[in-house]
Amino acid sequence: FDTYLGYLTGAEDYYTHSKSPVKECKTLDFWDATAPGLGGPGAIDGRYSTYVFTDALVQTIEGHPNETMADGRAPPPLFIYASYQGVHRPLEVPKDYFDRVVAPEAGPFNGESDYCS
User: Fold this and answer.
1) DSSP conformational letter for 108
2) What does the DSSP assignment read for 38-68?
3) Mean pLDDT of 32-44
């Protein structure tokens, strides 16, 4: 891949993009690398991860050449692997989505309203 945007581990907070086995010790785990093996934590604190990923995908697609090159060659192919974090804990969702769902009766899962959202 030429670029990478995402997490190196799992179960990161959707807004702070940190992972913490202990509340007192949070580690930022969101990387924006523009070349293999390079990059660092992204400055995206406070933005819901799904929106960050989608904005980056749209920017990549819109910035990719889609017309025949000046020398007659076809534009380079574009391959994107987009893997959202939306199905993993912690269960977090933007408030406007959460407010659209009436919380279900208590069930086997703590936070079922988040699943419904």
Assistant:
1) S
2) --EE-S-TTS-HHHHHHHHHHHHHHHS--S-
3) 59
